[in-house]
From TrEMBL:
GO terms for molecular function: ATP binding. This is Methionine import ATP-binding protein MetN. It comes from Agromyces marinus. It comes from the Bacteria. Residues 4-237 form the ABC transporter domain. Keywords: Amino-acid transport, ATP-binding, Cell membrane, Membrane, Nucleotide-binding, Translocase, Transport. Coiled coil: none annotated. The lineage of its organism: Bacteria, Bacillati, Actinomycetota, Actinomycetes, Micrococcales. The chain holds residues 1 to 237 of 342 of the full protein.
Amino acid sequence: MALVSLRNVTKSYPSAERGGDRVVAVDDVSLDIESGDVYGIIGYSGAGKSTLVRLVNALEPATAGSILLDGRDLTQMSERELRGIRRGIGMIFQQFNLFEQKTVAKNVAYPLEVAGASRAEVRARVAELLDFVGLSAKAKNHPDQLSGGQKQRVGIARALATSPRILLADEATSALDPETTHEVLELLRRVNREFGVTIIVITHEMDVIQSIATKVAVMDGGRVIESGDVFDVFSNP
Ligand code: ADP
Ligand code: ADP
């Protein structure tokens, strides 16, 4: 059974203009993401990628169709169950979204504190995660003292704090130079290999998909216009 399964998912929004047609952000999308995949979703700006992320992350309900996680339909879940689903999905972002007022250690500790971990658990887990991302020496620094790549490594450590099964990377390398992008992608590859975390990579950059993803869905105008193994999709004339 697929870990994430979208079946004819559509999301539309009311038009900004009075009486205008609804804006269809995601249009009849079906796709399956298997546990352990590094699954790329590529498309130009406005293709519907971020909307798709919000649907999978249960931040918004679909207008039509169903989204199954482990075969369970999100639309059938209570708000309490949806909160559990959200905790099982880590997110990293283009602008990192770190807490600027908190130290690196406190940024990573935050999801653990929210989840009610003990002080000892937080301390041990933060140490382990900072070691994993190679930032133990920066524990007491603030984000404004870090490079972009270091900030994203903190973002990854924070996203992994509660041991999610899925990591959603939304344009996570789009603010980084090519070398730093390469380092961050290498780290994501380790997250996938060493922890078996399923990674969904949202990007407009073909290089990113070719460097890290095994499967890809190409979005345009809210639709998936092609999907499959990266090699097959991109070797088509
Ligand atoms: P991408 O992430 O690929 O750039 P989005 O999912 O952000 O694409 O947007 C897809 C389309 O849906 C765009 O036309 C966008 O303007 C529209 N859209 C996204 N979110 C909303 C919203 N909350 N209200 C109205 N329209 C939206
Ligand atoms: P505080 O003033 O609350 O100690 P810190 O930023 O030093 O703030 O730490 C935030 C959290 O991260 C605390 O729960 C602490 O246990 C943990 N922590 C701090 N420094 C380290 C470190 N070097 N290694 C592991 N955990 C740390």
